[in-house]
Each structure stands twice: as C-alpha cells, then as structure tokens.
Design brief:
The chain is α+β, with helices and mostly antiparallel strands. Helices cover 32% and strands 32% of the residues. It is built from five helices and seven strands, in the order βαααβββαβαββ. Strand 3 and strand 4 form a beta hairpin. Helix 1 packs across helix 3. The two termini are 28 Å apart. The relative contact order is 0.17. The model has no long low-confidence stretch (mean pLDDT 94). One of its GO terms (molecular function) is acyltransferase activity, transferring groups other than amino-acyl groups. This is GNAT family N-acetyltransferase. Keywords: Acyltransferase, Transferase. Pfam families: Acetyltransf_1.
Amino acid sequence: MSDGFEVRPARAEDARAMAWVHVQGWRETYRGLLPDELLDDPGFLPRRERFWTTALTGERWTTHRFAVAESGGSVIGIAGSAPAEEEEWDVHLNMLYLLSEHHGGGAGTALLQAVVEPHESAALWVADPNPRAQAFYRKHGFVPDGVSKVEDGVRDLRMVRAAAS
C-alpha cells in the first residue's frame, strides 16, 4: 500500500471492475478523438467485461501481465503488457489506464512498474495528441522513435525504452 492505493496482479474476479475502468479510461482519454457513439455505446462495457474475463482466465493470455491499482476497495487503474512481437523489445505495454481523479498520485508509475520490469526494453503506442500520457511515458524513459500509425481515425505514436543497465 502506498499513498492510499495498492497495486497487485489482476485476478479473474477483477474482470467487471477492470472493464469499468477500461471504458471510463477510454472516455476520459479519447473523448474528442473517437466518436461519441463508440464511447457511449451501451454495449461497450459488456464487451470489455467479456474481454477481461477471457484475458484473465484464458490459456492464450498466460504470457501477459495484468495489474490493477486499488484505492478504498475499488479498482482505479489497470495495466497490461505482453512479450513484444517485434524482436527489438522485450515487452509491449498494451494499456495503462488510471481514472483521471487519481492522476499524479503515483498509481500510474506503480502500474507501469508492475507490468514492465526495469531490466526490460519496452515499446508502446500512445494517442497523439495526448500530451499528459506522452509526458508520463517520457518521465519513465520512453521516447518517440519516429514511427506512427492511424487506427480508427486516431494517430498513434510509438514510444520505446531501452532496458535499464
């Protein structure tokens, strides 16, 4: 426990709470970048809950690392990583969402450290523009490598970090 939150590995029984944080994280992060119809779709939360139930129980996901941050008995953040498909990096950070009311309190850093070890090189995709997230990742040693892509109308930048020596 640190500063009113605890970070721990995610468990199957966290699927519903993780889905809620995932959806809320998208709404807080991507409003204005993604269509409101997508973010406000009544089926969005049930789809995320099915995803998390599968990810936390399915054999295919055993090489992934999932963590949650809790405060006051509620999940306030989620993170996930997997072995990188690109040979240049050890790990790919697939997601890190923290409810905006908890930004700046250290939970984001703890979530990142829970799913990406300091000795691992890592890559991630971050929406552009998303200056807060980009600054967070820069603070943790990630830098844009000049590669970008557009997916679902959103431009993403790839950021990478070398393994700590």
